[in-house]
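Before relying on records like the one below, remember that each one covers exactly one chain. Contacts with other chains, cofactors or solvent are not represented anywhere in the record.
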Amino acid sequence: MADSTMIRQDVGQSRRDRWADWAVIGVLLVALLLGGAVMALAQGQRETLTNAEAGLTVHYPQGWLLKAGPDDLAFQAVNPASGAFKTTLQVRVVPILQGAESAGATGAVTPTLALVLNNLSLSRAQQTTAYRQLDMVEGEPVGGQPAMEAHYAYVHEGGGLFAQQMPVVVQGLDVVTARGDRAYVFGLLAASDAFEAAEQEFRRFLASASLGRP
């Protein structure tokens, strides 16, 4: 009789232990799901910037820092948490020459956009180290307008000859579209090992932009 009682006690204890284990697993799963939802919400939050003069409205990730740049930059923001080389989103506004604009109106939009990308490429080749343009292809339309895109790479050497920082291979992506007498060049710059994830954010940034003078 004593043995039977001990067996029943052991079985009851084993069941309680299993229920406790399942409860712990359930709590962990709920915590993971809630953590993922909070992270997704944080990543999805956006700041909005409107540049009326450039006819541009963009929605960029919350927590990124606005940064001044050359006169042709209508927008620039950097990710402060992205390491030695800061992942950067840019928008350039470039005037389209009268002849190129007329060509675009008759259907030769691709040469017009290709000219803008080529000019940027020539400028970067003079300003950076080991610059290489990797491709130039037709892109997905931006705001219903034809677009072209170009990938490139160069070596960022940091703060000068005596800076204690290893050179960084940077990958870039430009997507250009035309609206009226202007070309809008959406740009991404990121360290090579961070580029794939950065490009996903860039595509969301690109899709959310609004173009045209108010």
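Residues 2-44 form the longest helix (43 residues).
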